[in-house]
Each structure stands twice: as structure tokens, then as C-alpha cells.
Amino acid sequence: MQRRILAISAVVLLLGAAAIWLWWPESEGALAFCWRAGALMAAAWLAFDGVQRLPGWILLAVPVVLIAAARWPRLLVTLIPLLILWAILRKILGGR
């Protein structure tokens, strides 16, 4: 059901963006919102099955990494290799 909601939202937003572009081209904020949100919903719709199979720790780690990237971009130079090393060690040592 959630996948259908994403698809319907994507179509409605993209059609809304096309309508705004045709009839109200001066409202740039609404046009940009509809294009970007529609594209994001379409990408989420395409990736829905793959995201459902992700482990829970990845879903918790992604926002932390994004916040760290926005706040301290140089921290990623250290953080990304550490996350890769942690994932490899977890696989070698037989973690779940």
C-alpha cells in the first residue's frame, strides 16, 4: 500500500509541476517544490523494495552521517573509512 501512495504522490506532484509551469510560470517556489518533491517521491517509489531489505542499523546511521556531513564536512574523511572497517570486521567476526 505504501508503494502505491508514493507512486500516486509522485504523479500528482509532477502533474502539478507541469500545470504550474504552463499556467503560473511566475510562481517559482511552488514550481521548484513540485518538481523536487515529485522526483524524490518517484525515486523513493523505485527504491521501495530495496529499502525494505536494509538492516535497521543502516537506517539509523544514514541521518547521523548526513548531519555530520552538513555540520563537519572534514569529519567524513575519518568517518567513512571507519564505517567501512566496522562493516568488514562485523562480517568477518560473524555478527548478525
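the 2nd protein, sequnce then structure:
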Amino acid sequence: MDLDLAIQVVAWAMTITPMTVFLIISFYMMYGASEDDEAIKGLILLGLGIFTVGLVLLIAIYFTSFSITKLFGG
């Protein structure tokens, strides 16, 4: 294992760990808020739906050969 790989592993660990903790706390808070009010639950589900669609689009663009220019020419 060379130094560049070691630094990348440490950097990814320092990035993923706080993000994971933040997401767990956020989902726990959203779950608690959605139990109190149906309107809040609907807004949270709408936001999660929009996030999911955006995530799927990004995955399709970055990890496949999918491209808008290939679909419509240009």
C-alpha cells in the first residue's frame, strides 16, 4: 500500500463517517416529525422522492453511457 492510497482511504473515511452520522440523525428527526403531522409527512416524502429521482439521474449519467445528447442528438 503506497502513501497515496493510504491518504485516499483516510480522506474517504473522514468524509463518509460524518455524512453517515448526519443522515442517520436527519432521518430520525424526519421520522419523529412525520409522526406528529400528516402535512409534514407529505412534505418529507415529496422531498425524498425528488432526491431519489435526482440521485437516479446522476447515477445513470455518471455510471452508464446514458447521455441527453445521445438521446436527442447534438
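The two ends are 44 Å apart (CA to CA). The CA atoms of residues 4 and 66 lie 31 Å apart.
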